[in-house]
Every structure is written in structure tokens, then in C-alpha cells.
Specification:
alpha+beta, two-stranded parallel sheet, 4 helices, 22% strand, elongated
């Protein structure tokens, strides 16, 4: 290809690109245009306080209800009778195993996992926190065994999985 053909091709490509990207004056943004207005009249959220009239620019909300909804991940699902019975059946074994492990000295998370699985609990989740060991583990037929070990005191409860999944709630 000669120089002239290359120059014409290049000029055509540039012209096509510039023309294709051009913005007509009607769609070009202007600096004096008014800012878009929201479709609602409320500008910000305001907590509802008994006996206090909120200004019209507020979107009212109940802070207590919002906080309760925020903690729903900790709620437990229902558990069927068969799963509850199977978990309650191994609950004394879990207490005995964790009590024995704690009596040997400071209970580590690894010892707690070994004690839980040795007692028949499945997929244990264990966390050490503020001088105690928190645990959650699946029962033999579903549901959860959960509780804590503080010193040599062991507490165990039986219930369903938490809404956030698993048996031990997040911190």
C-alpha cells in the first residue's frame, strides 16, 4: 500500500471515530442545569421518638425494630423431634467429655474439638473467648448441641441450626 492510500485510510478512520463519538448539543450536559431531585420527599432517616413530631424531610424508622432485625442471624431454626431426641441422648456424654478435658487444665480449642467428636457430636465449631470456650456441633441426626465451658463448668443446650448457618453464632 502506498503512502497516499495509508493516509486516506487513516483519515477516514479518524473521521468515522470522531463522528461516531460526537455529542449533539441537545444531549450535552450543561453546567447551569438543575440537580436531579429524588422521587421521595424524605431527605434522611429519623428515629421515631414517642411524642416528637418529625419534620417532613424525615423518613421515620423504629431503631429498636431495626436492631432486632439486625440480630436475626443468631436466631435458631426449628428442630424436629427425632433430631432433638438424638442430640439430647448424647448431651450427657458431651458434658462429661468437656468436663474431663477442662479438668486436665486450660481447655484449648483443639481439646474441645476432640472431646466433642469423641462424645458423638459432628462437625464441631469452637472458639475461645474471654476465658471461656464456646462451642456448637451438629447432633447425630441433625440439630445442634451448643454451649460453653468456663473453668470446669460446662453448659450444653440443644436446638436448631442458626439462620446464619451452623451451630455457633458469629462473634
Amino acid at each position: 500500500m502506498n503512502r497516499r492510500a495509508v493516509a486516506l485510510t487513516l483519515a477516514f478512520a479518524v473521521a468515522a471515530t470522531v463522528t461516531g463519538c460526537a455529542i449533539d448539543d441537545a444531549s450535552r450536559p450543561t453546567t447551569d442545569a438543575a440537580a436531579p431531585t429524588p422521587s421521595t420527599s424524605a431527605s434522611y432517616a429519623c428515629p421515631v421518638v414517642e411524642g416528637v413530631q418529625l419534620p417532613p424531610e424525615c423518613a421515620p424508622y423504629d431503631p429498636d425494630a431495626a436492631m432486632a432485625a439486625n440480630d436475626r442471624y443468631r436466631d435458631r431454626m426449628a428442630i424436629d423431634d427425632e433430631a432433638r431426641a438424638a442430640a439430647e441422648e448424647i448431651s450427657p456424654d458431651v458434658v462429661a467429655a468437656l468436663t474431663a478435658a477442662a479438668a486436665e487444665g486450660a481447655l484449648s480449642t483443639e481439646k474441645a474439638v476432640d472431646a466433642l467428636t469423641g462424645a458423638g457430636a459432628l462437625t464441631p465449631q469452637v472458639r475461645a473467648e474471654a476465658g471461656r470456650v464456646l462451642f456448637g456441633a451438629a447432633g447425630p441426626k441433625g440439630g445442634c448441641l451448643f454451649g460453653e465451658v468456663s473453668g470446669t463448668t460446662v453448659s450444653v443446650e440443644v436446638g436448631g441450626y442458626i439462620l446464619d448457618s451452623g451451630c455457633l453464632p458469629a462473634q
